[in-house]
# Entry
Amino acid sequence: MNTSKLQPIWNALVVIGGIGIIVAVVTLISGWAWGPHIYTVSAGCFAVGQINSPIPSTDPTIKRLRRQQIFGALALVVAALFMFTTNGNEWIACLSIAAVLELYTAFRLSHLLESGETKK
# Structure
């Protein structure tokens, strides 16, 4: 199947997962028992959507940023694992690292792709 046909699906998963992550973190802070479950599903949707979203470029800088972005998405899933397996706040540290990676790569990738500062 052509990956361009699936692009809207991957984008929708990223958006739905991102909104779900924000909702889940708010529910976790308020102490709602279903918060970790909502977060796990949302982080999984976000990671699947982001990993499968193609970026058509052969530029080494964009490839490096893309690997960092995927690492950030996987760190979101690891934070979900920490919610269920640890008694402390280790998930907060993992979530913070993932958020910094995702923010940095999102802004940097969009800047590089829009400005055309890539090495062909």
Remarks:
- The longest helix spans residues 3-30.
- The two ends are 27 Å apart (CA to CA).
- Residues 26 and 35 are 8 Å apart (CA to CA).
- The chain has a mean pLDDT of 90.
